[in-house]
Amino acid sequence: MPESCPFNIVIYPPQAVRERAVRVSAALKEKGGLFELDDVEYFPHLTIIMQEFPLENIPAVCATLKGLADRTQPFYLQSLGYRQNERGYADVEFEATAVRLLQKEIGDLFIPLRNGLLRKGDAEYMKGCSELEANN
């Protein structure tokens, strides 16, 4: 039985934005895109933070996330540009002040709940990072 669980804390865009992202994804797939969004199994989303949490901390993670969601004011994002990254995912560039503030708040709240755990892929990735990158 696993002792921890990976979490991807995300923001889902409004329905109209999700529908447009699915249409764009289908068009890109026809032009050689590496994956296709469907809003059923593969959702358009904005990843805020990805962490590994001990199972014993999951109730605290869920309660903390609910409290944060309840007090976070909605914000608007305007896209500035689009690209497909080296892993095949679509990256959307946008003015990110609100997202960075939210990421910092989530980091401050959630990093202590991970008890020093890293996701399996992150642990391998960290081996190639500088000390500054690893501490970030």
Describe this structure in words.
Helices cover 41% and strands 21% of the residues. It is an alpha+beta fold and 136 residues long. Strands 1-2 form a two-stranded antiparallel ribbon. A two-stranded antiparallel sheet has the order 3-4. It is globular. 4% of the residues are buried. The model has no long low-confidence stretch (mean pLDDT 84).
Keywords, separated by commas or semicolons:
alpha+beta, 4 strands, 136 residues, 5 helices, two-stranded antiparallel ribbon, single chain
Uncertain spans, ≥5 residues at pLDDT below 50?
A: none
What sort of overall outline do the alpha carbons produce when their principal axes are compared? Answer: globular
Q: Give the DSSP E fraction (strand runs of 2 or more residues).
A: 15-25%
Quick one: biggest sheet?
2 strands, antiparallel
Tell me the Rg in angstroms. Answer: 17 Å
Widest sheet: strand ordering? 1-2
What is the SS-derived class?
alpha+beta
Helix content: 40-55%
Give helix and strand order, one letter per element, not per position: EHEHEEHHH
Q: State the helix count.
A: 5
Terminal-residue CA separation: 31 Å
Number of strands: 4
Mean pLDDT, to the nearest integer, reads 84
